[in-house]
UniProtKB/TrEMBL annotation:
Ranges for domain AAA-ATPase-like: 5-226
Pfam families cross-referenced by the UniProt entry: AAA-ATPase_like, PDDEXK_9
Source organism of this protein record: Tepiditoga spiralis
Species lineage: Bacteria, Thermotogati, Thermotogota, Thermotogae, Petrotogales
Family annotation (InterPro entries): AAA-ATPase-like_dom, P-loop_NTPase, PDDEXK_9
Protein name: AAA-ATPase-like domain-containing protein
Domain of life of the source: Bacteria
């Protein structure tokens, strides 16, 4: 059997070493027949670098690579082979390793990459004049001016066209890596001008250009990178262009698993690694499928690789509304959002939700299921598969761990009646956590919605969690239904202090408890056969918190609890009261302790 290409992205070594290759070579035909400048965006590890490498070896005039393609589908396209196989000068550059936490180092990495590019094509010095040679040598020596670096790809295309007498094909891999790095580490504005000019000069009105193909994760256009590039053709996960050329189709997965004689449950592979929708084609994650074949175990592979940091930060720092939608997604529901194909990283700073969901979609953390409004580009979105869902769950759990939020310990105090201890714990948690936020705005709502999201993930092993919230925490009740029917049910109501309606924060909390009783939230828990229910109302105003519960002395009792209280006063046996009111013996003992 052929070896699996794990960790391989160089097409030539993969073919010459006779490794397993899913034939995507007809991408070359589609590229030739498409626009002059192509931008292809797909999630990481979906074959972008391998495809760029394949095209480099196909077009490169300095090589004879017929042996690499003779067994592939593209070789049957005789006219294409005759006209294009190793017939074009090629500029190939990858930005996938340009990663740095500061501008100075990023600038150094970028100039180093451009220096390597010039050194590789040093032979063109033969056709340059004295002035051109001077700048060329400065770029190789990394001593050039920024203006020279910005113009260097365009200049190199001119020199290569002069040398070969043919227009040039430019291949740029992972073009947006330095842009994302700059956003993450705070030098976004400084790097965007340099990168924008570099690409703009290479692609806009370049008479020496035959064709350009750029790959990346996101389409970034408003930062002037593609301003004026009128011949730009874009392929994203939303449109049909190249829709089956990145990732694996169902037939390709079946063929791969069959070749390696791997017995598997089709439904399990689908649940874990399928779910992507690229321009209407059902796509599997290729990285995960290759690793599944290698290790013969169903587990998360793609989510355990690097590249999750930005998405994690956006979930953690997201608005209350965003956290609500994350909870819905984790629960298997769909959400709706406008998808802005020309997203701007700067919009992420402003919590512009459509930019967050656009990034999640293009990065592979969501899939689109339906275009519900073509005019406004609104789509329904959901988590694509089990592998990605595990990532969301782990991200929420890590958020809780970072804030040292331990729900189990807090709820234990609640369930054994230590309401004062629970209250102190919750207030400490609120004060410590909110101290990191600007509480003059909507940060408290963000924190409380984060708590609800945390409960939905952190407590799901022991509880069925139901939540019913309206935007802004006008109503935010959480119902915890224990899977162990001998345990207690819990209802938590979060109330934001309303200065017009509430006399005080305490009054707001008491109104929340009243709302729990009036709206009979406990009925849903009772339908599961659980009658011992703790009700807690948590009211907040910025950092201030008040908590009341049905465990407090003097608090308003339910009709059943009032009956139990009167019967206790008359000396009726606790077991008889329990049968009469359907309240648990422990609950009646709590009422007795309050007499």
């Amino acid at each position: 059997m052929k070896r699996l290409p794990i960790g391989r992205s160089d097409f030539k070594s993969l073919i010459e070493d006779n490794m397993y290759f899913v034939d995507k070579s007809l991408l070359i035909k589609e590229v030739i027949e498409s626009g002059d400048v192509l931008l292809i965006t797909r999630p990481r590890r979906f074959g972008k670098t391998l495809s760029q490498s394949m095209m480099k070896y196909f077009f490169d005039i300095t090589q004879n690579n017929e042996h690499l393609f003779k067994d592939l589908k593209i070789y049957k396209e005789k006219k294409i082979i005759e006209k294009h196989l190793n017939k074009h000068p090629v500029i190939y550059i990858t930005f996938k390793d340009l990663k740095s936490n500061n501008l100075k180092k990023m600038h150094a990495l970028l100039t180093m990459e451009l220096s390597r590019l010039y050194t590789k094509h040093e032979y063109v010095l033969k056709v340059l004049n004295k002035r051109e040679k001077a700048v060329f040598n400065k770029i190789m020596d990394r001593e050039a001016l920024d203006a020279d670096y910005e113009n260097c790809i365009r200049s190199l295309s001119e020199y290569m066209e002069r040398y070969y007498g043919k227009k040039v094909i430019i291949l740029i891999d992972e073009y947006d890596t330095p842009i994302q790095q700059a956003y993450l580490h705070g030098y976004y504005d400084e790097i965007i001008s340099l990168i924008g000019n570099l690409f703009g000069m290479a692609l806009k009105d370049n008479v020496y250009l035959e064709k350009a193909v750029l790959t990346g994760i996101t389409r970034v256009s408003k930062e002037s990178i593609f301003t004026g590039v009128n011949n730009l053709k874009v392929s994203t996960v939303l449109n049909e262009l190249f829709n089956d050329k990145y990732g694996l189709t169902k037939e390709e997965v079946e063929e791969t698993l069959k070749y390696y004689e791997l017995e598997y449950e089709e439904s399990e592979v689908i649940d874990w690694y399928n779910g992507y929708n690229f321009g209407g084609v059902e796509i599997y994650n290729p990285f995960s499928i290759i690793n599944l074949v290698d290790e013969k175990k169903i587990r998360p592979y793609w989510m355990n690789t690097s590249g999750n940091y930005l998405v994690k930060q956006l979930i953690k720092q997201g608005s209350a509304e965003l956290k609500d939608k994350i909870e819905k997604l984790i629960n298997g529901e769909e959400i709706e959002s406008t998808i802005n194909e020309t997203m701007v990283y700067g919009d992420l700073n402003n919590n512009l939700e459509e930019s967050v969901w656009t990034l999640f979609l293009f990065s592979g953390y969501l899939k689109w299921t339906k275009n519900i409004n073509h005019d406004y580009e609104r789509y329904t979105l959901k988590i694509p598969n089990k592998e990605v869902k595990i990532f969301y769950n782990k991200t929420v759990v890590s958020m809780l761990e970072e804030e040292r939020i331990k729900f189990d310990n807090m709820l234990l105090n609640l369930k054994v009646g230590r309401i004062k201890t629970f209250t102190d714990q919750f207030k400490d948690l609120t004060m410590n956590t909110l101290s990191y936020f600007d509480v003059s705005g909507k940060e408290p709502e963000r924190f409380y919605h984060g708590l609800i999201l945390g409960m939905s993930v952190g407590l799901k092993e022991k509880y069925i969690i139901k939540s019913n919230r309206e935007t802004g925490l006008g109503r935010a009740d959480v119902i915890l239904i224990p899977k162990d029917k001998t345990d207690k049910g819990i209802i938590i109501e979060f109330k934001k202090y309303n200065r017009d309606e509430d006399k005080s924060l305490k009054d707001s909390a008491q109104n929340g408890l009243k709302q729990i009783n009036e709206k009979k939230y406990e009925e849903e828990i009772k339908s599961y056969g659980i009658n011992d229910i703790i009700k807690v109302s948590i009211a907040f105003d910025k950092k201030e918190v008040e908590i009341v519960s049905n465990l407090d002395k003097g608090i308003e009792l339910t009709p059943e609890e009032k009956i139990a209280k009167e019967l206790l006063k008359n000396g009726v046996d606790i077991e008889i009261i329990s049968k009469t009111t359907n309240l648990s013996i422990e609950k009646i003992k709590n009422i007795h302790g309050q007499l």
